[in-house]
Design a protein that fits this description.
InterPro entries: TANGO2. The protein is α+β, with helices and mostly antiparallel strands. 19% of the residues lie in helices and 31% in strands. The chain is built from 2 helices and 3 strands, in the order βββαα.
């Protein structure tokens, strides 16, 4: 009926959020653990080239250490 899709939900829990990921193909809900994650139009466990490159490590380290 619908094309495959991903849905990410954020449920406020005090000073943080519970994050859940749903993929219409697998029809499963996955709770996402705290940390840095890259999401795309692929299944949850499929690596994304745009976020797995070694040259992104310095960027993510700087982002993690910043006070946004």
């Amino acid at each position: 009926m619908y094309n495959p899709f991903n849905l990410i939900t954020l449920d406020p829990q005090g000073n943080s959020y519970d994050v859940n990921f749903y993929n219409s193909d697998s029809k499963m809900i996955h709770q996402i653990q705290p940390g840095f994650h890259g999401f795309g139009n692929s299944p949850l466990m499929k690596p994304l080239k745009k976020v797995e490159k070694d040259d992104n490590e310095a960027y993510y380290t700087a982002l993690r250490n910043s006070s946004l």
